[in-house]
Request: fold
Amino acid sequence: MNTPEEIVQRQLDYYNENNLEAFISTYHGDVEILNLEDNVLVLKGLDALREKYRERFEIQKVKAELVNRIVIGDKVIDHEHVSGIKSGEIVKAVAVYKVEGTKIKRVWFLYE
Reply:
């Protein structure tokens, strides 16, 4: 089954494995990533997503610990503690995923 929660969990698993192509495969071709605070578009499309995460996976070896998850229809809201983005620090993040069909179509991020 491919519920929104399962799709988001799959991308989180791939994120923690630093498996770039598998991670990208969970996203819609026209994916949009936005800043939650001001709704500014950060990137659009799989090529931009791949470039954004290539360094995070290959060099920084990022990992995200799921602290809490809320599922409301086609939206999944994750509170995460992320390591590897800032050297020696844990970044607190909230991600709101909107799933369309079997792919993540839009994500809003908020970082502390």
Summary: The first strand starts at residue 27 and ends at 35.
